[in-house]
Amino acid sequence: MNLQYIRHSFSARLSLWVTGLVTAIFVVALTVFFRFTMSVDTDESLEKIMQTLENTALQADHEMLQTELTANTTRWMVVEHMATPDSIAALCRNVMAANPWIDSCYVTTTQETVLKSTTRWYEPTLDNPADSVGLRRMKMTYQLPIFNKAGHPTTTLNFDIHIDWNELAKDITNELPYASCFLQGKGGRYVLDESGYKAMQIGGEASHVFYRVLRNENWGIAIICPDHKMLGGFYRLLTTAVIGALVALLLLLFVCRKLIDGNLKSLDLLSETVRHMSHNQFDKPIPYMGRKDEIGELQLSFAKMQKALKSHIDEIHLKTDTLKQQNTELQSAYERGREDERTKAAFLSQTTEKFMQPVNAIGAAAERLCSQYQDISKEETEALLADITSNTEVVTDLIGQMLVTSQSTNHTNHTNSADL
């Protein structure tokens, strides 16, 4: 479908207009729909990721909370047996046996470590506040200071546990296969001011960082999700919808073209007939498709017009032929009239020449009789009278011939006039 064809094809232009209008409506509708869908999908994705992060952090918090409860329960027994180190060792073994998730339980004194005056969790590989490591199996230590009567820490109760971050990470990756998980200290590169999420540019890619502070408040779990992966379902839906819309529009263009061509076929046939009529070809009948709509009425009207025009033109042709015939006859009559005129002139010329001799003879005889009647004899007078009589008869005969010829010519001209 080239540009020249579109310019000269009403059906092609109408199909493109309809398709263009539907395309504009589709674009507006899909834009509004997908903006709303993207907003809803984004909110759902953010909520799902935060819920997944919260569930993972709660599992870690649960193990730490159990450890803290066990440590607080054990501390008063350690205080009771401070004088007997063997009893403390036995107590630690009993605590480990009763709580299998605890890897080790031991007491350190001021000579063995620098005591802290506050309870804390720590992990040696994350002591650097800028650390940010992938989730893995890690040993974490809970330290609970024991104070003397003066309020100074003299002993520290320690519990070592191993949290298998890989197991926790599986829960995240099972739910979020596109996510990256990190355990980080307070100074980690993905630490937020508080638990939540934030949009960031990571490696030149638009992403969201989700952060949840753990119970000990020293570390937290961070999840990084690229936006295009986080909204992968939405973009797949968008791609499918765009492809579907394009296919639908192409199908609409094809259907419109077929429907419009089918409806305009009658007009095309009518246009062809009108072209024939413009070249004075009125014998080609206007096809009637049996339609009851405006096009059918137009076909019937054109058929009536064609019939009237053909009748009128046939009448004009008939009158033209009659006029041509009459003109030919008039021309023939004119030529015959001219011939008659020439015949008359010739006849008159000949008759005049014939008149001259007897008339002159009569004139001469009459003049002699009038001028010399006393001098001429009776015999000569009788001879002159006889000559005059003879010439008069000649003139009379010539006049009779002229009358007969004139009547014959007038009768012929009258007959020709009547025929015309």
Task: Explain what the structure shows.
With 420 residues, the protein is an alpha+beta fold. 65% of the residues lie in helices and 16% in strands. Strands 3-6-9-8-7 form a five-stranded antiparallel β-sheet. The longest helix is centred in the C-terminal third of the chain and has 79 residues, at 294-372.
Topology diagram in text:
Layout: H1 3-8, H2 10-80, H3 85-98, E1 102-109, E2 120-122, E3 132-134, E4 137-147, E5 153-164, H4 165-175, E6 180-185, E7 196-202, E8 205-213, E9 219-226, H5 227-230, H6 232-278, H7 294-372, H8 378-419
Antiparallel strand pairs: 1-5, 2-4, 3-6, 4-5, 6-9, 7-8, 8-9
Helix pairs in contact: 2-3, 2-4, 2-6, 6-7, 7-8
Task: Classify the secondary structure makeup into a structural class.
Answer: alpha+beta
The average pLDDT value, as a whole number, equals: 75
Gap between N and C termini, in Å?
A: 65 Å
Beta-strand portion reads: 15-25%
Shape: rod-shaped
Fraction of residues in helix: 55-70%
What is the radius of gyration?
67 Å
Tally of individual helices: 8
Low-confidence segments, given as residue ranges, are 111-115
Main sheet overview: 5 strands, antiparallel
Strand order of the largest sheet: 3-6-9-8-7
Please provide the ordered H/E string of secondary-structure elements. Answer: HHHEEEEEHEEEEHHHH
Q: What is the number of E strands? A: 9
